[in-house]
Specification:
Blueprint (H helix, E strand, L loop, with lengths): L8 H11 L6 E3 L8 H14 L4 E4 L5 H14 L5 E4 L1 H5 L1 H4 L5 E3 L4 H13 L9 E5 L2 E4 L22 E3 L6 E2 L2 H7 L6 E4 L2 E2 L10 H7 L6 E2 L2 H14 L5 E4 L9 H14 L4 E5 L6 H10 L1 E9 L3 H7 L6 H12 L4 E8 L6 H12 L6 E6 L7 H9 L19 H8 L5 H13 L4 H30 L4 H20 L12
Parallel strand pairs: 1-7, 2-3, 3-4, 9-12, 12-13, 13-14, 14-15, 15-16
Antiparallel strand pairs: 4-5, 5-6, 7-8, 10-11
Length: 507
């Protein structure tokens, strides 16, 4: 149901069924419109022509507003076809999900889905399949979850264009092609997205990992082999020579052991050689790791800061990483020709006014250039921070199904954090002093609006160009070649901060 084609999880499930000899179709409903009657009729006809034994929907909270009406339609059209929901939303919200789905799959889904399809084909009951949830006689039953998959190499390798895949971008349902990938995938499909691990070493209070840790008490970080990773990347580049870079979607790629990272970097440089982006936490930024990764081609590094206040990070977000650790990581990153992207959570009702202003002050002094990826704090179901918010400040809790975490409410104390990433430091200090002295005055708001306009229209575009050049080893020619790839996402975000979204595929 996502608006772009960046999904990985459902593609793994689809590939897993195909690899075991089952007839599966993957359908991207990336422009689902429940009011478009002609498009709905084409969709109904597509499902009827395939006549599947089941229909599965993968969804997060963000996809819920579209997944729910589609599921209602699907049951109206085909009441005899079982409808299955999977993904993090039904995992954390089984009761609500079973109001729309006949079955849900909780947690890691490959084994459960394969067992379910096998049981349906054999005409046997699925009631004892691990990970499944369903209702019998008005009562909800949630089966225990099976152990997590340890051998990730046993899973199918993904491709740029999945086999047996379709897309419904408007009126017609069409077979998925590279043309669709380049139109609807982030960065025009020129940056290949891959995941080489499952799990995260962190269990932050705002993240679904804090819920999954309860579902899987022995959950550990699992890795694919280097050979398996390289084979997928080689196949992807052979399939689509227009791929210009690789992004690793893993939460903390740098948490790989140094020995494994050394082998990974040597193989990547020899066999792939494209610039790549990696995510990490500050604790894993070391000179040894940076030397290996930059030497292999890392041009972008995404580091989670979340907040510059130790109290917020440790007590509220349950991230045992303080400002000093982050600052040391930022100083080290600045020594290398890479573009840093720092994550920051805004709109946090647990933070005091002074803590918010202090975060802006710290951002003002960070080594530049860097890009701030800002998120609005969202209380996702099942997370530790949601339970705390419901206890302590229930009026601040917006249901995650109806909130976009990429849309930040830029009140002055939040806007100043973003502005301080680029504003000239003397001007930034004047702005912060004014905000502390008269936070609610119209003159303060005027200065903030003026600084925000200057930041958006002048300083941030210049910063983005500097970062793009830095990601290409300070090559102007390399930056110019990458510019058409990133302009649809990064620059639209730059000029539209009051409605920023990661969906870069608006026609």
């Amino acid at each position: 149901m996502q608006r772009n084609l960046n999904i990985l999880g459902l593609r793994y499930l689809h590939g897993h069924l195909l690899a075991h000899g089952h007839d599966s179709r993957l359908l991207f409903l990336n422009r689902y419109d429940d009011e478009n009657a002609p498009a709905l009729e084409r969709l109904r006809a597509f499902i009827a022509e395939f006549n599947p034994g089941m229909v599965g929907v993968s969804l997060t909270a963000y996809d819920y507003p579209h997944a729910r009406p589609f599921s209602v339609r699907c049951k109206q059209w085909f009441p005899e076809i079982p409808l299955v929901w999977g993904g993090i939303h039904p995992t954390t919200e089984p009761e609500d999900s079973l109001n729309y789905a006949d079955l849900i799959v909780r947690g890691e889904g490959e084994g459960a889905l394969l067992d379910l399809v096998t049981a349906m084909e054999a005409g046997t009951s699925p009631d004892n399949i691990d990970n499944l949830g369903f209702r019998r006689g008005g009562e909800t039953r949630l089966n225990p979850v099976r152990p997590l998959i340890q051998d990730l190499d046993a899973l199918p390798m993904l491709t740029q264009v999945p086999a047996a895949a379709w897309i419904h971008p408007g009126l017609e349902v069409e077979p998925l092609t590279l043309r669709h990938v380049r139109k609807y995938k982030m960065f025009r499909g020129a940056i290949y997205r891959i995941m080489v691990s499952r799990g995260c070493p962190m269990h932050c209070a705002y993240c679904a990992n804090s819920f999954l840790k309860g579902l899987y008490p022995d959950m550990k970080l699992r890795w694919r082999s280097t050979e398996n990773i390289m084979r997928e990347l080689e196949l992807a580049v052979a399939e689509d020579p227009a791929i210009r870079a690789v992004t690793f979607a893993d939460d903390v790629l740098l948490s790989m052991s140094v020995d494994a990272l050394r082998d990974f970097c040597a193989q990547y440089k020899a066999r792939v050689g494209l610039p790549f982006m990696a995510k990490t936490t500050p604790a894993y930024i070391t000179r040894e790791r940076m030397d290996l990764l930059v030497g292999a081609g890392m041009g972008w590094v995404n580091v989670g800061l979340q907040d510059a206040n130790d109290r917020i990070c440790k007590e509220v977000y349950k991230r045992p990483i303080g400002w000093e650790v982050f600052r040391r990581a930022a100083d080290l990153i600045h020594e290398y020709p890479v573009a840093p992207y720092y994550d920051l959570i805004l709109n946090n009702p647990f933070a005091t006014f002074e803590e918010d202003v202090k975060t802006a002050e710290m951002l003002l002094d960070l080594p530049r250039p860097y890009f701030l990826q800002s998120f609005s704090l969202t209380f996702y179901r099942g997370t530790e921070i949601r339970e705390r918010a419901l206890r302590e400040m229930p009026d601040c809790v917006v249901e995650p199904e109806f909130k976009d975490c990429y849309r930040v409410e830029f009140v002055p104390k939040e806007a100043v954090k973003v502005i301080c990433t680029t504003i000239h430091r003397p001007l930034g200090r004047v702005l912060l002093r004014r905000l502390r002295q008269a936070p609610d005055s119209r003159l303060t708001q005027f200065f903030m609006d003026l600084a925000g306009f200057y930041h958006r229209m002048v300083l941030q575009p210049v910063t983005m160009l500097r970062l793009l050049r830095r990601s290409q080893r300070d090559s102007v020619l390399g930056a110019l070649k990458m510019l058409p790839v990133v302009v649809d996402f990064r620059f639209i975000t730059t000029f539209n901060l009051l409605h920023n979204t990661k969906d870069s595929t608006e026609e």
